[in-house]
Amino acid sequence: MDLGITIKNIRKQKKQTQTEFALACGITQTYLSQIESNQREPNLSTLKLISIELNVPLPILFFLSLDKEDVEENKREAFEIIDPSIKSLVNEFFAV
């Protein structure tokens, strides 16, 4: 799961700097930087604030963060087939 990179990508698509986004979330820019580089895992309440500011529901944020290593080995082939289509649909729906 690559939650930090997903947060960073969505933030950038919304054309917000780390400083602007961190301020909106009530966290420091340093902490946001650590989250986005996967150096720190935010707690659930911080993740909720981030998802609200990104305008992406938290379960969707988690889904967008999935990669094939998060899926059971016997299901990876199916995941790799459907993942791009589903993520594209989700991105379109949430204007990510």
Automatic annotation (TrEMBL):
<feature type="domain" description="HTH cro/C1-type">
    <location>
        <begin position="7"/>
        <end position="61"/>
    </location>
</feature>
<keyword id="KW-0238">DNA-binding</keyword>
<dbReference type="InterPro" id="IPR050807">
    <property type="entry name" value="TransReg_Diox_bact_type"/>
</dbReference>
<dbReference type="GO" id="GO:0003700">
    <property type="term" value="F:DNA-binding transcription factor activity"/>
</dbReference>
<dbReference type="GO" id="GO:0005829">
    <property type="term" value="C:cytosol"/>
</dbReference>
<dbReference type="InterPro" id="IPR001387">
    <property type="entry name" value="Cro/C1-type_HTH"/>
</dbReference>
<dbReference type="InterPro" id="IPR010982">
    <property type="entry name" value="Lambda_DNA-bd_dom_sf"/>
</dbReference>
<protein>
    <submittedName>
        <fullName>Helix-turn-helix transcriptional regulator</fullName>
    </submittedName>
</protein>
<dbReference type="GO" id="GO:0003677">
    <property type="term" value="F:DNA binding"/>
</dbReference>
<dbReference type="Pfam" id="PF01381">
    <property type="entry name" value="HTH_3"/>
</dbReference>
